[in-house]
Structure formats: C-alpha cells, structure tokens
Specification:
By secondary structure, the chain is an alpha/beta fold. The protein has two domains: about 290 residues, 3-Layer(aba) Sandwich (UDP-N-acetylmuramoyl-L-alanine:D-glutamate ligase), CATH 3.40.1190.20; about 120 residues, Rieske Iron-sulfur Protein. It has an eight-stranded mixed beta sheet, with helices on both faces. The radius of gyration is 23 Å and the shape is globular. It starts with a strand and ends with a strand. It binds beta-D-fructofuranose. The site of beta-D-fructofuranose has 12 residues, from strand 2, helix 1 and strand 8.
C-alpha cells in the first residue's frame, strides 16, 4: 500500500445518456441522467482507493452546494481532503457530459468559476508522508514550481504528470517528472498521427522520464529512458463499449497501482498492461465502482493465446474469446507466426466467429479472409489485397513464444511492416 497525493481538479459531472449524439440546434430527450464527482485526478484517486492505497487530494474546494457535495462524496470514498484549499467564493467546476450509449463516447462541456490550485497552497502541504505525487498539467507556471519544489524536497518520491491537452507554458513542466502520461488528443493536437513518432519527439522534451501514451482502442505505448525502445501494449476488443468517461484516468490509476505495489524494474510493460486492462474493464461498465475485483477476474496475463501444436504449417486459429467470439487470430505461414485482431477494418466485425475458418486460397497463395464481405488480407503484412476496404490493414498484435506456448507480448520497436512476425519453425 502506497501513500499517493493527487494535485488537480475536483468537478461535478452531470451526465446525460443519449442513444445518439445530438444534432446542433435540435432537441432530444436523454435516456437517463446521473450526477457524480469527477476531475481527472479525482477519478484516478477514486480507482486507487479501491486498491487500498492511502490517497489524498490537493484541489480547490468551493463553498456552494455542489462544492459541499464534492467534499462529502470524496471523503466518503476515504480520500483525505486535508491538502485541499477551501475557498469562500466561486462555484464548483462543472462538466456537462453527453454520453452516447450507441458507442460509449463522451463529449464534455466544462464550466469553471473558481481559481486553480496554486503554488502557495501547495507549499503549505507536508509532502513527507507521500510515496507518489501525481499532478494534472493545469496552470503550468505554478505546476512547474510545485514539481521543482517537490523534487528539491525528495529524490525518492515518484513524481508523475498527466498531460491531457495543450496549455500555455506546458514546456516548463517537462524537465521534472519521473513519469509523464500523455493523451492521444494531446499527441494529435501536436499533429502526430503515429504514436511511436510522438514518443520519439516527447523523449527529446523529457529525456529523464518514462513516457506513457494512451491510444484509445489500440491500447497504450511506453518508452523508458534506460531502455530507449518503444513498446506497445495492445488492448483487447471491448464490445459493447458502455462508458468511456474517465478511461484515461483509470489507465493512469492502474499503472500507478502496479508500480507502487511492484518491483521498480526498468520494464514498465507489466504496469502499463495492468493499466490498459483496467481501462478496458472501465469502458465495459458505467462509473468506477468494483474495478479492482473485475480487473482481477479479467486480467490473466500468463494465460497463453495458444500452443504451437494447435497450428499446422499453414494454419490460423481464433483465440481469446470475448463474449464467445475470438478476439485475436494467430496465423502460422511462411515458417513464421503472425497475430492480428479479429476485427475487419471494413466495418469492425469479426472476420469469422469460430476457432477456424480464417484462411482462403491455395497453400502458396493463402490469405486471411473476412467471411462477412469477403475482404482478403496478406498474411505477412495484414494489408487488404481484395474486397471492400483497399488501403486498410488488419491490426497486428505483438506476440512472443515461450517453450511451445504463444503469449501476448509487448513489442520493442519492430521493423516497419509487421510488428508481430516471429520465426516459428
Ligand atoms: C474525465 C473527467 C471528468 C471531468 C472532466 C474534466 O476524464 O475528469 O470527470 O468532468 O474530465 O476535464
């Protein structure tokens, strides 16, 4: 159990669930409405509490009814509010959220009428009891000074920073943290469409830090300065996606929990994998309750996908059933193994819903085939060679072989074309 201080914002989230995203200047009835506390750091601490860590929040707390509700709810969850700054004016930051039940997307309109948590309030906190300090990148000049102060006070505390969106003076923050969590929206906002290219650039901005980049349905990528290679942690297919609100905050909680409770090795794959699995569980359900127990049931990282004996010399099997349908296809051909998500880039449906039935053609010219609209894909590259989605590819999944068992793996930066081909002879 670790002692973790989160520095950021506490919000009231008013969530309207709809069956489709509204058109501008239209009227629509919500299917349901709920209200909860939110804010990235609050969500992260809420999940960390479930893993029995001692959690404290440093945020600005307002005196209005919503502000009081935030304090009550957060305290009920066992999060210590004593580092927070109680002010006598303003209104609690409020997020009006449209949650699309069709695909789980969340659209946030945020309003705030309260100052940010500032340096003076931070300097008043006794930091000595904490093992880990996790910051949201908000008012960056103050946050940079907080990070610098914390670093000067202790070399052993882990300092992590979440960068969700572009902010003025963000560059001031990069030199201090041990760990930086980036959002996909931030990377794309800086014109990166390739997660590896983003992490390579970010490594120049923060050469001392472990960098973790969430990449939506593709999972997450990480880079540690000691290793210098980029690793990807693919996510499993989640169907249906129920609620993506706070999925990124949950991933961060999973990584912090795994690192704060495990060995301090240079390999962050187990921790990032745990974070990705926890985020997958979060998007399967409404809210954050019970993530610890669900995650323990879901995540079984040591279960192999299949064994080499399961595959003939030119063969494919569908494995890792999710809701009864294989989520990954493992292929043996050309004396190598390949693995792909069982999801056709044409419309996202499984290529096939059974254990076998993925290959078509003669032994020399075998391709993977989608049984739905007959798209065909090159086994070695995953590229579509025929059918309704030219120019697209199946999504490769990194694998490793141990003995005769085939496991999911993180992948050190692979050759350009195929992330996951490994000799299988
Ligand atoms: C989700 C969230 C919400 C909050 C908003 C703040 O990540 O933290 O709970 O209202 O983002 O930006």
């Amino acid at each position: 159990m670790a002692s973790i201080l989160g520095i950021g914002i506490a919000t009231i989230d008013i969530i309207n669930e709809v069956d489709h995203y509204p058109l501008e200047d239209s009227e629509q009835r919500a299917l349901a409405q709920r209200q909860s506390t939110g804010g990235n750091v609050c969500n992260t601490l809420q999940v960390l509490r479930q893993f029995e860590h001692h959690c404290a929040l440093a945020a600005v707390l307002t005196p209005d009814a919503d502000g009081v509700l935030i304090q009550t709810k957060i305290t009920q969850r066992g999060i210590d509010l004593s580092p927070s700054q109680k002010i006598g004016f303003g209104h609690a930051p409020t997020s009006y959220i449209t949650l699309n039940r069709h695909n789980g997307s969340r659209t946030i309109v945020h309003y705030r009428d309260a100052p940010e948590f500032d340096l003076n309030a931070f300097l008043a906190i006794d930091l000595t009891p904490f093992d880990w300090l996790h910051f949201e990148a908000r008012n960056c000049m103050d946050t940079a000074a907080m990070l610098a102060w914390a670093r000067s006070m202790s070399r052993t505390q882990t300092l992590s920073l979440e960068i969700e969106k572009e902010r003025p003076h963000l560059e001031q923050l990069f030199q201090f943290p041990d760990v930086i969590f980036f959002s996909r929206a931030f990377a794309e906002g800086r014109d990166f469409t390739d997660p590896r290219a983003f992490l390579t650039a970010a490594h120049h901005w923060a050469p001392q830090a472990v960098l973790i980049l969430a990449w939506g349905a593709a999972g997450a990528y990480w880079l540690a300065p000691q290793l210098g290679t980029i690793h990807s942690i693919p996510s499993q297919i989640v169907n249906p996606v129920v609620d993506t609100l706070g999925a990124g905050d949950t991933l961060i909680a999973g990584v912090i929990h795994a690192r704060a409770s495990g060995a301090a090795t240079a390999d962050w794959s187990p921790a990032v994998t745990f974070g990705v699995r926890l985020a997958e569980q979060k998007i399967r359900q409404i809210g954050f309750d019970g993530l610890n127990t669900q995650a323990n049931q879901q995540a079984n990282p040591i279960e192999p996908l299949c064994h080499l004996d399961d595959l003939g010399p030119a063969d494919a099997v569908g494995v890792r059933p999710q809701n009864g349908v294989p989520s990954i296809i493992v292929v043996r051909a050309h004396k190598a193994l390949y693995a792909y998500r069982n999801s056709c880039p044409h419309n996202g449906s499984p290529l096939c819903k059974t254990r076998r039935g993925y290959l078509t053609g003669q032994p020399d010219g075998l391709t993977l085939r989608c049984a739905v609209h007959h798209a065909q894909f090159d086994i070695q590259s995953g590229a579509c060679t025929q059918g309704p989605c030219p120019g697209t590819s199946l999504q490769a999944v990194p694998i490793r072989i141990e003995g005769d068992a085939v496991f999911l793996a993180s992948d050190p930066t692979p050759p350009a074309n195929n992330e996951s081909s490994i000799p299988a002879s």
